[in-house]
User: What shape does this take?
Amino acid sequence: MNIRAVIVEDSRLARNELKELLKKYDDITLVGEAENVDEGYELIQAENPDLLFLDINMPEKDGFELLEMLDEVPMTIFTTAFDEYAIKSFEYNALDYLLKPVNENRFAMALEKVRAKMETAKQDNDRTKKLTENSQIFIKDGESCWLVKIGDISLFEIVGNYTRVFFDDKKPLLYKSLNQVEEKLPEDTFFRANRQQIVNTNYIENVVPWFNGKLKLTLKNGEEVEVSRRQSYIFKDRMSL
Assistant: This one.
């Protein structure tokens, strides 16, 4: 994990102090420094850092004003000689608040908070990141293993707490729920036909009206899928011109 950081601090001595502390951490890359709010704003817009070390008391504009200028605020660690701003700093969702001169152990603790937050954000992103048709997934069922391209899968189907995956003439189990699978599938290719099944629309060979306003799909592999009444309306709307 590489964390990109900037320093916005009017004191050259304080900037140098922070840079010396940062030299001990290989996972933190300092990508720029600024000595006032306006320069800091331009630097953050240009570099889009993960982490901001921010002084509060600066000439003309203070650190709080800088945060208010930003549309997207990096993780922020305030560095200041005054402790009366501590409560206000957390109103701005600051990750931490360090008093000058910065204690080395206290600095290390602040960086642990940064790493923890970055890891949580990464895990959240991994969970919600959508796959594409060309993405490959690994499936192991018993002694057999496959590396399958998402676009080659014609159907996903609930089996208890797991999901059966249909591709070629294979039907192995994937040890995830259908809802977990659905979260990652490309929405322009896969369609939730009913509570139990998700179909790859590229594999639909035939569509016929069915009972009670439902539709029945026949896939190229011969599998038949009944689309629920509610999902049939959505399917018609989605697939029409």
Q: What stands out?
A: The helical segments are 12-22, 37-47, 63-69, 86-91, 104-128, 178-184, 229-239. The CA atoms of residues 192 and 198 lie 4 Å apart. The two ends are 46 Å apart (CA to CA).
